[in-house]
Specification:
By secondary structure, the protein is α/β, with parallel strands linked by helices. The protein is built from 17 helices and 14 strands. It binds nicotinamide-adenine-dinucleotide, L-histidinol (HSO) and zinc ion. Its EC number is 1.1.1.23.
Length: 431
């Protein structure tokens, strides 16, 4: 854990090291990922069987065993206790409501020159959803990926999830059923991303791959981009908590640990204007760690990547937050909305002491698949827009072509493109 103070002369160097940590999560695995993708392209299902045995410690009998059957999904769903199923339902319904509200409308623009112009939205044909499963199972991520895809109208939704040691998580399967996933595959890591992008004899390729994952998954998505579309790069989790001196150190500590427990590579940062809070939180983190089942992961994450930054004021706090462009931004100050208005870059914001980030992970409604590694400077969280694309259209009658065509003819000739010019000119008798 780093302790930084903006008043210290060495602050910039320490802060730059924090920024580098966020930037560097995938670079170190690019070679290994390229090899995995090349193997899946060359060997298809055989590579999936071999890599699954190697990385997930599970040897599927054959390629057919990589696909979860409808019977397995039925049995898993039936095994979920009613109260847990009700919680899954609450989350699914709230996520669906929020994402339905995102659906954009087609536009038609009447044009005074006599053309009609428009833009139409349409869903991709097939989406591949990556659901992480190496260190923990994420039923909530199934809902967060699949519900926007279905709301957008995607007909084929293929989900991949690793099953370490051959363990299928029943709630992951129940969530897949609840969210309308059409295929579930027991594969993970870069090999799953490669299979979705290039296809194998068993798994048909998709058009768009979405979802979070570890550094291998994030790097694989980066490498298959272009062959398929991807959402943002959502890698190891991050949170920046902005808290003033009125906040309870124990609550702040648990909010930091809620990200740290995801992954040793996760990053949790506290920014505060209170020297007392800056002193109290590290001790509160250590005390809370002792009570957590995933203390080993959370402890390593906190010690390697965690930070407490003491700022002079919230002007400084807002500027540093923009430089971090965090995946999650939790604001617990006297006027959280006013401070949020001064910050431009964050994947998702959580305002006030009654809005811990974990609420958004599960049931609030907005998506929890968010841009990490400072990509919130230019990227956004998963939404229906990731599964939609736009087609613009133009309709012209003769009068419209006569009114607008001569300018096009002039520009086409200026570009030396005579066929362009004549395809218009000959229709309107310009010669
Ligand atoms: N941003 C989000 O919305 C969100 C949501 C949930 C989880 N997460 C993040 O997703 C990540 C999940 O990571 P995970 O590891 O638990 O699951 P994962 O499913 O992303 O990765 C597991 C896979 O990684 C591959 N792998 C592991 N070690 C490898 C190696 N040495 N070489 C090649 N491949 C290897 C294996 O194929 C394995 O199946 C965490 O960082 C968590 O913070 C993010
Ligand atoms: N915080 C994660 C996104 O970074 C999402 C998640 C899933 N389950 C719990 N949390
Ligand atoms: Zn989380």
């Amino acid at each position: 854990m780093r302790r930084l103070d903006t008043r210290d002369p060495g602050f910039e160097a320490g802060f730059a090291a924090l920024l580098d940590m966020a930037r560097d999560t995938t670079a170190r695995v690019d070679g290994a990922v390229a090899e995995i993708i090349a193997r899946v392209r060359a060997e298809g299902d055989a590579a999936l069987l071999d890599l699954t045995a190697r990385f997930d410690r599970w040897q599927p009998r054959d390629a057919a065993a990589l696909r979860v059957t409808a019977g397995e999904i039925d049995a898993a769903t039936a095994s979920i206790p009613a109260a847990l199923m009700a919680a899954l339902d609450t989350a699914a319904a709230r996520i669906e409501t929020f994402h339905r509200a995102q659906m954009p409308a087609d536009i038609t623009v009447p044009d005074p020159a006599g053309l009609t112009l428009g833009m139409r939205w349409g869903a991709v044909d097939a989406a591949g959803l990556y659901v992480p499963g190496g260190k923990a199972a994420y039923p909530s991520s199934v809902l967060m990926n699949a519900i926007p895809a279905r709301v957008a109208g995607v007909p084929r939704v293929a989900m991949v999830v690793p099953t370490p040691d051959g363990e299928l998580n029943p709630l992951v399967l129940a969530a897949a059923r609840r969210a309308g996933v059409t295929e579930v595959w027991r594969i993970g890591g870069a090999q799953a991303v490669a299979a979705l992008a290039w296809g194998t004899a068993s798994l048909a390729p998709v058009d768009k791959i979405t979802g979070p994952g570890n550094a291998y998954v994030a790097e694989a998505k980066r490498q298959v981009f272009g062959r398929v579309g991807i959402d943002s790069i959502a890698g190891p989790s991050e949170v920046v908590v902005l808290a003033d001196g009125a906040q309870d150190p124990a609550r702040v500590a648990m909010d930091l640990l809620a990200q740290a427990e995801h992954d040793e590579a996760a990053q949790s940062i506290l920014l505060t204007d209170s020297p007392a809070l800056a002193d109290a939180v590290p001790a509160a983190v250590e005390a809370a760690l002792a009570t957590l089942p995933r203390a080993a992961i959370a402890g390593e994450s906190w010690r390697r990547h965690g930070a407490v930054i003491l700022v002079r004021d919230w002007d400084e706090g807002a500027a540093l937050t923009d430089r971090l462009a965090p995946e999650h931004l939790q604001i617990m100050t006297a006027d959280p909305a006013a401070l949020f208005a001064r910050i431009r870059h964050a994947g998702a914001a959580f305002l006030g002491p009654w809005c811990p980030e974990a609420l958004g992970d599960y049931v609030a409604g907005p998506n929890h698949v968010l841009p990490t590694g400072r990509t919130a400077r230019f990227a956004s969280g998963l939404s229906v827009f990731d599964f939609l694309k736009r087609t613009t259209w133009i309709a012209a009658e003769e009068a419209g072509l006569r009114a607008t065509g001569p300018a096009a003819v002039a520009l086409a000739r200026a570009e030396g493109l005579e066929a362009h010019a004549r395809s218009i000119a000959e229709r309107i008798g310009m010669g």
